[in-house]
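Bug #77: duplicate submission created two jobs. Keeping one. Sequence:
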Amino acid sequence: MQQDVQGKVDSRAMREVNRSIVLDIIRRGGKVSRTDLAKSSTLTKPTVSAIVDDLIARGIVSEVGFGKTVATGGRRARLLELNDASAAYLGLRFGVHTTTAAIADARGEVRAIRETPAIVGDAHAAVRSALELLDGTLAEAGLPRERLHSVGVTVPGMVDTRSGSVAFAPKLGWTDVPIRSLLQQALELPVVVHNVTNAGAIAEGRIGAAKSARSYVWVHVGHGLGAGIVIDGQLFSGTQGFSGEIGHCPGGDDGPLCSCGLRGCLETLASGTAIERVAAEAARGGEPTLLAAHPAPELATVLDAGRAGDAVAQRILREAGRQLGVGLSYLINVLDPELVVLGGRVMEASDLILEGARASLARHTFRGSQVEVVKSTLGDRAGLMGSVISAMDQAVRSYRIVATADRLA
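Kept job's structure:
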């Protein structure tokens, strides 16, 4: 009896695998025939036909006309195409300033994005606020709610990947928040949760600057600082999901107090928050600088001043880059990656930090000049796109529908 049950489970799993293969070929190939599917998948024609009939019955695939006339004069093959509207995926980004929702279709094309001001300090209210975006975003995307298959979430904090809980997100004021459970209870859908650096690394590897790399590090440089690590094509999250927290590695024993409660963390020396602190000190220091007109310069003010040629602002940005390069040197010396990608709001606006980081790496690594360090091609969208891609991957694992995300843009 046990063998019969196991046989049924194995048979069901094999059917799902075959179905996934066929769906992926249809998605990638555009209009294809059953014969083409059998050749590409190496599955038998009867197996392919059974899968295709089921997909058509479910509305996932449509017949869209006929192929070219065959030389033998036989019947032309019917062509098949993925129904883009057959599935929807929700990506949620809980940011420090805004909460954002994105809806992608079955091909991974993002159809709609909406956002609302962030709610800091109350995780339950933040979740309710995010869910209020859902219906409007689905309507804008032209996809009904019943097509929603899975949810991906990104949070700027430490995420326990086993439980889907946010252990600590100081800039959101969250501690031990069961974000996966909250969303699963509300939506009754599979939910996957990543921190912003891991989400950014996923997106950059699929559709960004690291698309051709197998081993790379994606570093988020915003008001916080952290790294997403990919080794041989696989995201490395550590035992609990807390890997890549270089922002809380020591940069100096007597440095400023960090939001985590420690002193001298790299985040206090090389992040947007650090830039704002040093700029405020410079604004009060009496040097001729554009920053003097701003007693507490915000990051955008410092970046604008640097672009305008302000020597003090440029010095601050280069020093932040130098400190960042020291932190990156630890990652490069330990991991030996092919590539380092720098993302986040700070990197979008300043090449001075990139210059400082590259110069610092050349001094602090065995082969720093040989490791390519580039800016993200996704900009501030990396975390959100990573959440959408994660939702699609989660749907694959849940045997709902196969859709990879290499067409996301």
